[in-house]
Amino acid sequence: MFRWFRAPLIDSMDPKRDIVGIQYLRGIAATAVVVNHVAAIAALDKYFAKEILGGYLYSGSVGVDLFFVISGFIISVISLNKSNAPKISMGAFFQKRFARIIPLLWVAILAYAALKLLGRGDFDPLPMLRALTLFPIGELEPNVVWTLRHEALFYTLFAVTFLGSRRRAWIIVAWIVAPIVAWPLVGEVGRGNEAWGMSLVNFITHPVNILFGMGLALGLFWNFRPSGQIKLQGGVLFAILLGGFAILTLAVYFWQLSFNSVPGVLVTGSISVILMFCSIKSKIEVGTVSRVGMLLGSASYSIYLFHLHFVSAILGIWASLFPESPMWIVILMTSLAAVLLCIAVHLVVEKPLVAMAQHTLARRAKPA
């Protein structure tokens, strides 16, 4: 039954240096985002109109902060050698990023639009077009695509500096520190339909820039191949990281931290870096737990993109059939079902789609 676990889709990291703990963290972050959205949607009047644990489950949104830190780390590790010099051309970098991110993104957006049209008879082309093009201004559908806007900007700045000319390093440094400089003037930023000028300023100086910077700094450090990894069993490492993530969510809940504020990302980013450091300094033997963790991490992109497709449908059916169900059961089972369905999307759609895109782009890149 574990044949699916043997070849997880990851971001082309060197197998000899592959860090299983990073995949654990990706899976934990994606699952936390699912739980956050399930709890929030289930609390709507048209579903169950109930909230549990005082809204604590909404702090699962901090999984997004962790995703950004992980992204900064992974991009630096897969693109730079141990001297932090480029080991991939700028063109090849963008080709790989496109194949890894865009085709599945387009499938998710079009599927979401089709489900909304069939289920509600509602179709607004502008948010969908913005999502398809990662346009930096305006609302998106599905709204989870907002994170990919920032990912695309980070990829571009990273390529221009680290894969281009190091003389341009000031550009990405300025981008990372810009939120701190702009914070006294801009304050907490939003992602709505503000005036174009201010929206663009908010996008460029968004506090999540700091999270990418923290992950990038950790990746540059890791590329020097620091020695002294600690051997742990897969289950032990997973428990440690899960406990650390619980501390992160508690910090978000009690201190009301937000990725739309500089103070918020400074705290969540610092805790995320600690979790990342624990994961990269741990070495575990491959076993059932590690394979499951790797699968969950490899499916994290599908989980993030597609979970909303399933959550609304599951909750709608459940609320109509069993409206008095205990909320903790509703949230638990809906989250579990959504994650499992998204893993199926990863195995059946994402892996062959990315492989096909990589093959097609590689063939076109070859000289005639």
Structure description:
The chain has one domain (2-365). A two-stranded parallel ribbon has the order 1-2. It is 68% helix and 2% strand. The relative contact order is 0.18. Mean pLDDT is 88; it is low at 1-10 and 12-17. The radius of gyration is 20 Å and the shape is globular. The chain has helices at residues 20-42, 63-79, 90-120, 125-133, 146-162, 169-186, 196-204, 208-222, 234-255, 262-280, 288-298, 300-321, 327-365, and strands spanning 230-232, 282-284. It is built from 13 helices and two strands. Helix 1 packs across helix 10 (262-280), helix 8 runs parallel beside helix 10 (262-280) and helix 12 (300-321) runs antiparallel to helix 13. The chain has 368 residues and is mainly α.
Specify the number of helices.
13
Proportion of residues in extended strands: under 5%
**Category by helix and strand content:** mainly alpha
- Low-pLDDT regions: 1-10, 12-17
On the 0-100 scale, what is the average pLDDT?
A: 88
Q: What distance lies between the first and last C-alpha atoms, to the nearest angstrom?
A: 43 Å
Number of domains: 1
Number of DSSP strand runs: 2
Q: Mind telling me the C-alpha Rg?
A: 20 Å
Principal-axis shape equals: globular
Quaternary assembly: single chain
N-to-C order of helices and strands? HHHHHHHHEHHEHHH
Question: How helix-rich are the residues, as a percent range?
Answer: 55-70%
